[in-house]
């Protein structure tokens, strides 16, 4: 099975001592920093370019919505894209979620038709930091405000009741607890640049900026490399987002705007 990346800077994952042999993952998508989206074969890890989004994202997170549709966060808005024709439909923008200059960072399925992300006032040196649980069905948002200087999160993964695991692409990882309104920095057993994560069949995986795939044990905070993505067209600027086709509780309604906001402190 050939799973070497074409860039000379990236080694073949299965030739590395840390690489494991695992069963096939569901086919999934990844994105690059220019907004390009690639479909990845979960058995061979061969990636095929599909199309690009219309904006130039600072960061980009994606969730699968069924059919050919992805929910995308490009830091300024949440929107859906139909991969069959490239059509986009806005869901909510950062300006709808608060006054001032804000950015939307990371994205996770929170269950029951809701998604989670961080809303940050920019620049980060003078910013506020709020976790947002956004209801796709009615456009309402529940805010949890955190103290301290925030980080630039690239992705989140639901790991328990009101608890999310976040990565930054810079080797920093966090556990966000909405119930306790806390953010705890944690560290994996090996240095990494995980930029996006997904769960498939009960297993959790992370992908770094170079396209290397790791199985994650979030209890032991350990990483085991299982492969690397073989792109047909080398991604611009590295990998920044992923989505796995899986049954989703979220309902696509193509809604724009924010109807109601609830705040927890």
Note the overall shape: globular
Q: Give me the CATH architecture, please.
A: 6 Propeller
Supply Rg: 17 Å
Please write the string of helix (H) and strand (E) elements. EEEEEEEEEEEEEEEEEEEEEE
How many structural domains in the coordinates? 1
Q: Biggest β-sheet, characterized?
A: 5 strands, mixed
Structural class designation:
mainly beta
Q: In percent, how helical is the residue content?
A: under 10%
The main sheet orders its strands as 20-3-2-1-21
Overall pLDDT:
81
* Terminal CA distance: 51 Å
Q: What is the CATH class designation?
A: Mainly Beta
CATH fold label = Neuraminidase
Helical element count?
0
Total beta strand runs: 22
Please report which band the strand proportion falls in: under 5%, 5-15%, 15-25%, 25-35%, 35-45% or over 45%: over 45%
Spans of at least 5 consecutive residues whose pLDDT stays below 50 are: 1-22, 246-265
Written overview of the protein:
This protein is mainly β. The protein is 0% helix and 48% strand. It contains no helices and 22 strands. It has strands at 28-32, 36-40, 46-52, 61-64, 69-73, 77-82, 88-93, 102-111, 114-121, 129-135, 141-146, 155-160, 163-167, 173-177, 182-186, 194-200, 203-208, 212-217, 222-228, 230-231, 239-243, 261-264. The strands form five sheets. The chain has a five-stranded mixed β-sheet with strand order 20-3-2-1-21, with no helix packed on it. A five-stranded mixed β-sheet has the order 8-9-10-11-22, with no helix packed on it. It starts with 27 loop residues before the first strand and ends with a strand. Mean pLDDT is 81; it is low at 1-22 and 246-265.
């Amino acid at each position: 099975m050939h799973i070497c990346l074409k860039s000379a800077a990236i080694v073949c994952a299965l030739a590395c001592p840390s690489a494991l042999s695992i069963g096939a993952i569901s086919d999934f998508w990844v994105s690059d920093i220019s907004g390009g989206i690639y479909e990845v074969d979960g058995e061979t890890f061969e990636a095929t370019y599909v199309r690009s989004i219309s904006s130039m994202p600072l960061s980009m997170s994606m969730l699968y919505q069924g059919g050919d549709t992805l929910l995308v966060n490009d830091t300024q808005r949440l929107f859906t894209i139909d991969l069959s024709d490239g059509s986009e439909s806005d869901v909510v923008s950062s300006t709808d979620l608060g006054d001032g200059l804000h950015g939307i960072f990371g994205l996770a399925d929170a269950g029951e038709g809701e998604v989670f992300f961080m809303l940050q006032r920019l620049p980060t040196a003078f910013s506020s930091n709020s976790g947002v649980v956004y209801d796709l069905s009615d456009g309402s948002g529940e805010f949890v405000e955190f103290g301290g200087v925030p980080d630039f999160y690239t992705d989140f993964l639901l790991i328990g009741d009101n608890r999310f695991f976040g990565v930054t692409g810079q080797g920093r990882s966090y556990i966000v607890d909405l119930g306790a309104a806390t953010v705890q920095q944690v560290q994996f057993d090996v240095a990494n640049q995980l930029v996006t994560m997904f769960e498939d069949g009960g297993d959790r995986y992370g992908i770094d900026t170079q396209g290397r795939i790791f199985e994650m044990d979030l209890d032991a905070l350990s990483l085991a490399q299982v492969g690397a993505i073989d792109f047909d067209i080398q991604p611009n600027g590295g990998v920044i987002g992923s989505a796995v086709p899986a049954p989703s509780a979220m309902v696509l309604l193509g809604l724009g705007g924010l109807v109601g906001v609830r705040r927890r402190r």
